[in-house]
Amino acid sequence: MRNTQINIFVDCHIFDKNYQGTTTYIKGIYQEFILDKDKHFFLAASNINHLKTVFGVHSNVTYLPLQSTNKFVRLFLEIPRLIRKYKIDYAHFQYITPPIKACKYIVTIHDVLFLEYPHFFPWLYRIKNYLLFKRSAKQADIVCTVSPFSKEKIKHFFNVNSIITPNAVDPVFYEKYDKKSVQELVKKQFGQEQYWIYVSRWEPRKNHLNLVKVFAENEHYKEYSLLFIGDQDIPNKSFDAYYDCLPNEIKSKIHIKNKVSFQDMLLLLRGATLSVYPSFAEGFGIPPLESVAAQIQTVCSNTTAMADFDFLNGFFFNPEDVVEMNQVITHALATPFPTDSILKLQQNYNWQIAAKKIEEALLKAQ
């Protein structure tokens, strides 16, 4: 007789890469969801030892090692084989599901910005992901997304309804710390002091260019450094051309760090004077939440999904307008951190909400 416990497979291959928003999403939801002992969770990645440090050891969690790092082998062969072997009821994927359906599928499509803002993305990227995302959304039994903005766009482009499983913040960002001690450690380990920070991978839509313009052309480099943390995803020739023409005096105050561990990122965030998130477009945008939780003064774009961040009222700017961006940054630098923003953040964005939404969808889908 088959065990009545629901078996849920989670594709965690993203944990084999560097820290990013999708990692935060899976971690946050399933750290909550695995507390439900009526369900058994099968978490799969190449490095299951790392997964164990993230999720811990539980009687209802089985870690499955993925043998292949090739995404086609993983989706076409390896994962369907694991689904059949372990009698999986639901399998949760990010963006793309296997082409052959081996059980009920859950897919989270965080955004379809490449369709709403095509000028920021290469044409081949747009075509490939349109076909893959649309097929996955049509195939899935449950489609999740992370914001009302993304929900509306998924409905518009794919004619598919989705549920909102909002992003939130890892509890570690709320932990208390001594600012002075952190700043001393950052100076010792990284040589950084009095700096702004922007945590994001590199794409043209992330708007690194306008932030550098504000930093350089308003002479903020005389008092601060500017620290970028994130891996390059899509090249930005406009940024490169502008940066290459800057004088060495300014270049020396701009620091770019790739392949940064989570712990180093957290340390650098805590040591920052200001967190800036100037992106043109986001399906959600986790870094502003994280910097507010860490009590770092934060300014942010007022477009797309970020417009919902009411805890940042008074610290929004139009990412197209470098004058306004500079005005808001200058205001933030002269203003004490608004501690009431943390309570607003906790009330509206927590992982219990997201896990509950998926659980409700599972009940409806059975």
Question: Which key phrases capture this entry?
Answer:
seven-stranded parallel β-sheet, six-stranded parallel β-sheet, 16% strand
Concise structural overview:
By secondary structure, the chain is α/β, with parallel strands linked by helices.
Spatial order of the strands forming the largest sheet: 3-2-1-4-5-6-7
Count all strands and give the number. 13
Termini gap: 19 Å
> Structural class given helices, strands, pairing?
alpha/beta
Write a structural description:
The protein has 366 residues and is of the alpha/beta class. The protein is built from 15 helices and 13 strands. β8, α8 and β9 form a beta-alpha-beta unit. The longest helix is centred in the middle third of the chain and has 17 residues, at 123-139.
Explain the layout of strands and helices.
Blueprint: E1 6-11, H1 21-33, E2 39-45, H2 48-55, E3 61-65, H3 71-85, E4 90-94, E5 104-108, H4 113-116, H5 123-139, E6 142-145, H6 148-158, E7 163-164, H7 179-190, E8 195-199, H8 208-217, E9 225-229, H9 237-244, H10 248-251, E10 254-257, H11 262-271, E11 274-277, H12 287-293, E12 298-301, E13 316-317, H13 322-333, H14 340-348, H15 351-365
Parallel strand pairs: 1-2, 1-4, 2-3, 4-5, 5-6, 6-7, 8-9, 8-11, 9-10, 11-12, 12-13
